[in-house]
Amino acid sequence: MSQYLILDAIRGPLEGQSFSIPLGSSLTIGRLPECGIPITQDPTVSRQQCRIEFPGPDAQLVHLSVTSDTLVNRSPATRTELRGGDTIELGTGNLFKVRMDDSAAPPSPRPAASPMKPAGGGHYTMTAASCGWSLYQFPGGIQTPQQLLDLLGKSATVRAIVDFRKTGVQPTEIDPAWAPLFSWLSVDQQLQFSPMIVKSSGVSAELLQSAWGKDALVSVGSTLDDAEFMEHWQAISGVENGQPGKALSIFHWPSLLRLVLTCQQPDRMNPVLSKLSWIAVEDSEAPAQLSLFAPSTFSDELGKRGFSPSSTSATVVSPGKD
Description:
Blueprint: E1 4-11, E2 18-22, E3 25-30, E4 37-38, E5 50-54, E6 59-63, E7 70-72, E8 75-76, E9 79-82, E10 87-90, E11 94-101, E12 123-128, E13 134-137, H1 145-152, E14 157-162, H2 164-167, E15 178-180, H3 187-193, E16 196-198, H4 205-211, E17 217-222, H5 226-237, E18 239-240, E19 243-244, H6 254-261, H7 266-273, E20 278-282, E21 290-294, H8 299-304, E22 308-309, E23 315-317
Parallel strand pairs: 3-4, 12-22
Antiparallel strand pairs: 1-2, 1-11, 2-23, 3-5, 5-6, 6-9, 7-8, 7-10, 10-11, 12-13, 13-21, 14-16, 14-17, 15-16, 17-20, 18-19, 20-21
Protein backbone atom coordinates (compact mmCIF):
# COMPACT_ATOMS: atom_id res chain seq x y z
CA MET A 1 0.00 0.00 0.00
CA SER A 2 1.28 3.47 -0.87
CA GLN A 3 2.21 5.50 2.19
CA TYR A 4 2.01 8.91 0.51
CA LEU A 5 -0.16 10.60 -2.06
CA ILE A 6 1.80 13.27 -3.90
CA LEU A 7 0.39 16.19 -5.86
CA ASP A 8 2.85 17.52 -8.44
CA ALA A 9 2.01 21.09 -9.48
CA ILE A 10 2.60 21.11 -13.23
CA ARG A 11 0.92 24.42 -14.07
CA GLY A 12 0.10 27.58 -12.14
CA PRO A 13 1.89 29.67 -9.48
CA LEU A 14 3.03 26.54 -7.60
CA GLU A 15 4.52 24.89 -10.71
CA GLY A 16 7.56 22.80 -9.87
CA GLN A 17 6.50 22.05 -6.31
CA SER A 18 5.19 18.75 -5.03
CA PHE A 19 3.04 18.16 -1.96
CA SER A 20 3.03 14.92 0.01
CA ILE A 21 -0.02 13.72 1.97
CA PRO A 22 0.73 10.91 4.44
CA LEU A 23 -1.53 7.89 4.64
CA GLY A 24 -4.38 8.58 7.06
CA SER A 25 -4.36 12.33 6.48
CA SER A 26 -6.24 14.89 4.45
CA LEU A 27 -5.72 18.45 3.31
CA THR A 28 -7.64 21.27 1.68
CA ILE A 29 -6.69 23.21 -1.44
CA GLY A 30 -7.99 26.77 -1.60
CA ARG A 31 -7.35 30.49 -1.47
CA LEU A 32 -7.18 30.71 2.33
CA PRO A 33 -3.58 30.94 3.60
CA GLU A 34 -4.28 28.23 6.18
CA CYS A 35 -5.19 25.65 3.52
CA GLY A 36 -2.79 22.73 3.16
CA ILE A 37 -2.07 23.89 -0.40
CA PRO A 38 -2.82 27.65 -0.51
CA ILE A 39 -3.34 29.30 -3.89
CA THR A 40 -3.71 32.81 -2.51
CA GLN A 41 -3.27 34.92 -5.64
CA ASP A 42 -5.94 33.36 -7.87
CA PRO A 43 -9.36 34.97 -7.18
CA THR A 44 -11.09 32.25 -9.21
CA VAL A 45 -10.09 29.66 -6.60
CA SER A 46 -12.57 29.41 -3.73
CA ARG A 47 -11.45 29.90 -0.16
CA GLN A 48 -11.75 26.15 0.22
CA GLN A 49 -11.94 24.64 -3.24
CA CYS A 50 -11.57 20.93 -2.52
CA ARG A 51 -10.29 18.44 0.03
CA ILE A 52 -8.03 15.47 -0.66
CA GLU A 53 -8.67 12.52 1.67
CA PHE A 54 -6.21 9.66 1.93
CA PRO A 55 -7.55 7.22 4.57
CA GLY A 56 -6.04 4.32 2.66
CA PRO A 57 -5.88 2.30 0.60
CA ASP A 58 -7.88 4.60 -1.71
CA ALA A 59 -7.80 8.38 -1.99
CA GLN A 60 -10.65 10.70 -2.83
CA LEU A 61 -11.22 14.29 -3.86
CA VAL A 62 -14.19 16.05 -2.25
CA HIS A 63 -15.35 19.20 -4.06
CA LEU A 64 -16.18 22.03 -1.61
CA SER A 65 -16.69 25.16 -3.70
CA VAL A 66 -20.17 26.46 -4.52
CA THR A 67 -18.91 28.96 -7.11
CA SER A 68 -16.47 27.08 -9.35
CA ASP A 69 -15.74 23.54 -10.51
CA THR A 70 -12.91 21.23 -9.56
CA LEU A 71 -11.95 19.05 -12.52
CA VAL A 72 -10.55 15.54 -12.25
CA ASN A 73 -9.25 14.33 -15.60
CA ARG A 74 -11.05 17.35 -17.17
CA SER A 75 -14.47 16.37 -15.78
CA PRO A 76 -16.30 18.22 -12.95
CA ALA A 77 -15.98 16.27 -9.70
CA THR A 78 -18.12 16.12 -6.56
CA ARG A 79 -16.62 13.14 -4.74
CA THR A 80 -14.20 11.23 -6.93
CA GLU A 81 -11.69 8.45 -6.30
CA LEU A 82 -8.12 9.40 -7.19
CA ARG A 83 -5.48 7.17 -8.78
CA GLY A 84 -1.90 7.70 -9.82
CA GLY A 85 -1.74 9.70 -13.05
CA ASP A 86 -5.03 11.55 -12.50
CA THR A 87 -5.04 15.31 -13.01
CA ILE A 88 -6.75 17.90 -10.82
CA GLU A 89 -7.54 21.34 -12.24
CA LEU A 90 -8.99 24.30 -10.38
CA GLY A 91 -9.26 28.04 -10.75
CA THR A 92 -7.45 29.61 -13.69
CA GLY A 93 -4.86 27.18 -14.98
CA ASN A 94 -3.88 25.49 -11.71
CA LEU A 95 -3.07 21.89 -12.61
CA PHE A 96 -1.84 19.07 -10.37
CA LYS A 97 -0.95 15.47 -11.16
CA VAL A 98 -1.54 12.66 -8.68
CA ARG A 99 1.29 10.31 -7.80
CA MET A 100 1.47 7.46 -5.28
CA ASP A 101 4.78 6.87 -3.52
CA ASP A 102 6.10 4.70 -0.69
CA SER A 103 9.19 6.81 -0.02
CA ALA A 104 8.34 10.49 -0.50
CA ALA A 105 9.07 11.45 3.09
CA PRO A 106 9.78 9.67 6.35
CA PRO A 107 6.62 8.81 8.25
CA SER A 108 6.02 10.76 11.45
CA PRO A 109 6.91 8.74 14.56
CA ARG A 110 3.81 7.44 16.30
CA PRO A 111 3.59 8.36 20.00
CA ALA A 112 4.17 5.47 22.36
CA ALA A 113 1.03 3.95 23.80
CA SER A 114 0.26 5.06 27.32
CA PRO A 115 -1.45 2.77 29.82
CA MET A 116 -3.29 5.84 31.17
CA LYS A 117 -5.18 6.37 27.92
CA PRO A 118 -8.66 4.87 27.72
CA ALA A 119 -9.34 2.14 25.20
CA GLY A 120 -10.83 3.05 21.85
CA GLY A 121 -8.63 6.02 21.00
CA GLY A 122 -7.10 6.73 17.63
CA HIS A 123 -5.62 9.57 15.63
CA TYR A 124 -6.97 12.95 14.67
CA THR A 125 -5.94 15.70 12.30
CA MET A 126 -6.19 19.35 13.29
CA THR A 127 -6.28 22.22 10.82
CA ALA A 128 -7.08 25.89 11.29
CA ALA A 129 -10.61 26.81 10.19
CA SER A 130 -11.37 30.30 8.94
CA CYS A 131 -13.90 30.83 11.76
CA GLY A 132 -11.07 31.05 14.31
CA TRP A 133 -11.51 27.56 15.75
CA SER A 134 -9.73 24.41 14.64
CA LEU A 135 -11.23 21.63 12.55
CA TYR A 136 -10.59 18.18 13.99
CA GLN A 137 -11.14 15.10 11.85
CA PHE A 138 -10.64 11.43 12.54
CA PRO A 139 -9.05 9.47 9.65
CA GLY A 140 -10.47 6.14 10.82
CA GLY A 141 -13.96 7.60 11.03
CA ILE A 142 -16.41 7.73 13.91
CA GLN A 143 -18.17 4.48 13.17
CA THR A 144 -21.20 4.72 15.47
CA PRO A 145 -23.17 7.50 17.15
CA GLN A 146 -22.26 5.95 20.49
CA GLN A 147 -18.61 6.73 19.75
CA LEU A 148 -19.61 10.35 19.30
CA LEU A 149 -21.22 10.41 22.73
CA ASP A 150 -18.23 8.65 24.29
CA LEU A 151 -15.84 11.11 22.65
CA LEU A 152 -17.55 14.36 23.54
CA GLY A 153 -19.93 13.72 26.42
CA LYS A 154 -17.43 14.39 29.21
CA SER A 155 -16.10 17.72 27.92
CA ALA A 156 -19.32 19.80 28.12
CA THR A 157 -23.10 19.47 28.23
CA VAL A 158 -24.14 17.83 24.96
CA ARG A 159 -27.20 18.99 23.07
CA ALA A 160 -28.40 18.20 19.58
CA ILE A 161 -30.34 20.23 17.04
CA VAL A 162 -32.33 17.78 14.93
CA ASP A 163 -34.39 18.36 11.78
CA PHE A 164 -36.73 15.38 11.94
CA ARG A 165 -38.08 16.12 8.45
CA LYS A 166 -34.76 14.97 7.02
CA THR A 167 -34.53 11.85 9.17
CA GLY A 168 -37.63 10.29 7.61
CA VAL A 169 -39.07 9.72 11.10
CA GLN A 170 -41.85 12.24 11.65
CA PRO A 171 -42.69 12.57 15.38
CA THR A 172 -46.34 12.62 16.43
CA GLU A 173 -45.76 14.42 19.72
CA ILE A 174 -43.12 16.62 21.27
CA ASP A 175 -40.89 14.71 23.67
CA PRO A 176 -40.32 16.38 27.07
CA ALA A 177 -36.60 16.53 26.24
CA TRP A 178 -37.24 18.56 23.08
CA ALA A 179 -37.65 22.30 22.66
CA PRO A 180 -38.90 23.58 19.25
CA LEU A 181 -36.50 26.11 17.73
CA PHE A 182 -39.42 27.79 15.93
CA SER A 183 -41.37 28.35 19.13
CA TRP A 184 -43.87 30.76 17.53
CA LEU A 185 -45.50 27.98 15.51
CA SER A 186 -48.49 25.98 16.70
CA VAL A 187 -47.76 22.54 18.13
CA ASP A 188 -48.88 20.80 14.93
CA GLN A 189 -46.68 23.10 12.85
CA GLN A 190 -43.75 22.60 15.20
CA LEU A 191 -43.99 18.84 14.69
CA GLN A 192 -43.99 19.32 10.92
CA PHE A 193 -41.56 22.18 10.38
CA SER A 194 -39.50 23.11 13.43
CA PRO A 195 -36.04 21.74 14.21
CA MET A 196 -35.88 20.47 17.78
CA ILE A 197 -33.23 21.37 20.32
CA VAL A 198 -32.75 18.14 22.23
CA LYS A 199 -31.66 18.54 25.84
CA SER A 200 -28.78 16.51 27.20
CA SER A 201 -31.18 14.03 28.81
CA GLY A 202 -32.63 13.22 25.39
CA VAL A 203 -29.39 12.86 23.43
CA SER A 204 -29.18 9.09 23.09
CA ALA A 205 -27.42 6.73 20.73
CA GLU A 206 -30.84 5.88 19.26
CA LEU A 207 -31.55 9.53 18.47
CA LEU A 208 -28.16 10.02 16.85
CA GLN A 209 -28.57 6.82 14.86
CA SER A 210 -31.90 8.00 13.43
CA ALA A 211 -30.29 11.16 12.04
CA TRP A 212 -26.84 9.78 11.20
CA GLY A 213 -25.83 10.29 7.58
CA LYS A 214 -28.93 12.37 6.69
CA ASP A 215 -27.64 15.94 7.08
CA ALA A 216 -30.15 16.31 9.88
CA LEU A 217 -28.26 16.69 13.15
CA VAL A 218 -25.80 19.12 14.73
CA SER A 219 -24.24 18.24 18.09
CA VAL A 220 -23.12 21.10 20.32
CA GLY A 221 -21.22 21.29 23.58
CA SER A 222 -21.60 24.23 25.96
CA THR A 223 -21.79 25.21 29.61
CA LEU A 224 -25.11 27.06 29.12
CA ASP A 225 -28.28 25.88 30.82
CA ASP A 226 -31.27 24.86 28.70
CA ALA A 227 -32.92 28.29 28.63
CA GLU A 228 -29.65 30.09 27.87
CA PHE A 229 -28.83 27.66 25.09
CA MET A 230 -32.26 28.11 23.47
CA GLU A 231 -31.91 31.89 23.67
CA HIS A 232 -28.44 31.75 22.12
CA TRP A 233 -29.34 29.35 19.28
CA GLN A 234 -32.46 31.32 18.44
CA ALA A 235 -30.45 34.56 18.39
CA ILE A 236 -27.80 33.24 16.01
CA SER A 237 -30.55 31.71 13.84
CA GLY A 238 -32.21 35.09 13.35
CA VAL A 239 -35.13 34.81 15.77
CA GLU A 240 -36.11 38.20 17.21
CA ASN A 241 -38.37 38.53 20.26
CA GLY A 242 -39.73 35.03 19.76
CA GLN A 243 -40.60 35.69 16.11
CA PRO A 244 -38.74 35.11 12.83
CA GLY A 245 -36.48 38.03 11.98
CA LYS A 246 -35.67 39.36 8.54
CA ALA A 247 -33.73 36.20 7.69
CA LEU A 248 -33.26 32.82 9.37
CA SER A 249 -29.86 31.10 9.32
CA ILE A 250 -30.09 27.36 8.75
CA PHE A 251 -27.48 26.41 11.35
CA HIS A 252 -29.31 23.12 12.05
CA TRP A 253 -28.20 21.58 8.73
CA PRO A 254 -24.67 20.17 9.08
CA SER A 255 -23.73 20.79 5.44
CA LEU A 256 -24.52 24.50 5.65
CA LEU A 257 -23.07 25.01 9.12
CA ARG A 258 -19.85 23.30 8.10
CA LEU A 259 -19.61 25.57 5.06
CA VAL A 260 -20.09 28.66 7.23
CA LEU A 261 -17.47 27.57 9.75
CA THR A 262 -14.90 26.95 7.02
CA CYS A 263 -15.58 30.15 5.05
CA GLN A 264 -16.51 32.95 7.45
CA GLN A 265 -13.95 35.00 9.37
CA PRO A 266 -13.69 35.20 13.19
CA ASP A 267 -15.33 38.63 13.43
CA ARG A 268 -18.46 37.20 11.81
CA MET A 269 -18.41 33.96 13.79
CA ASN A 270 -17.54 35.19 17.29
CA PRO A 271 -21.22 35.85 18.14
CA VAL A 272 -21.98 32.23 17.21
CA LEU A 273 -19.03 30.54 18.91
CA SER A 274 -18.43 32.71 21.97
CA LYS A 275 -20.83 30.75 24.22
CA LEU A 276 -20.07 27.27 22.88
CA SER A 277 -17.38 24.69 23.65
CA TRP A 278 -17.48 22.72 20.40
CA ILE A 279 -19.67 21.91 17.39
CA ALA A 280 -19.74 18.47 15.77
CA VAL A 281 -21.27 17.77 12.36
CA GLU A 282 -21.15 14.70 10.21
CA ASP A 283 -19.64 15.21 6.77
CA SER A 284 -22.75 14.75 4.62
CA GLU A 285 -20.63 13.57 1.68
CA ALA A 286 -18.67 11.06 3.76
CA PRO A 287 -20.91 9.22 6.24
CA ALA A 288 -19.22 8.41 9.56
CA GLN A 289 -16.59 11.12 8.98
CA LEU A 290 -16.94 13.56 11.85
CA SER A 291 -16.01 17.23 11.53
CA LEU A 292 -15.42 18.63 15.00
CA PHE A 293 -14.95 22.39 15.37
CA ALA A 294 -13.42 23.55 18.65
CA PRO A 295 -10.66 25.81 19.99
CA SER A 296 -7.12 24.59 19.39
CA THR A 297 -6.86 23.78 23.11
CA PHE A 298 -9.46 21.04 22.66
CA SER A 299 -6.60 18.76 21.65
CA ASP A 300 -5.99 18.34 25.39
CA GLU A 301 -9.49 16.86 25.77
CA LEU A 302 -8.88 14.52 22.85
CA GLY A 303 -5.67 13.37 24.52
CA LYS A 304 -7.69 12.43 27.60
CA ARG A 305 -9.96 10.35 25.37
CA GLY A 306 -6.98 8.39 23.99
CA PHE A 307 -6.54 10.27 20.70
CA SER A 308 -3.17 11.46 19.41
CA PRO A 309 -2.40 13.83 16.53
CA SER A 310 -1.33 12.79 13.07
CA SER A 311 0.14 14.98 10.34
CA THR A 312 -2.34 17.42 8.80
CA SER A 313 -0.45 19.67 6.42
CA ALA A 314 1.18 18.85 3.16
CA THR A 315 4.94 18.30 3.21
CA VAL A 316 6.75 20.01 0.35
CA VAL A 317 9.07 17.55 -1.36
CA SER A 318 11.19 17.69 -4.47
CA PRO A 319 9.41 17.27 -7.82
CA GLY A 320 9.18 13.73 -9.09
CA LYS A 321 8.11 11.82 -12.17
CA ASP A 322 5.62 8.99 -12.63
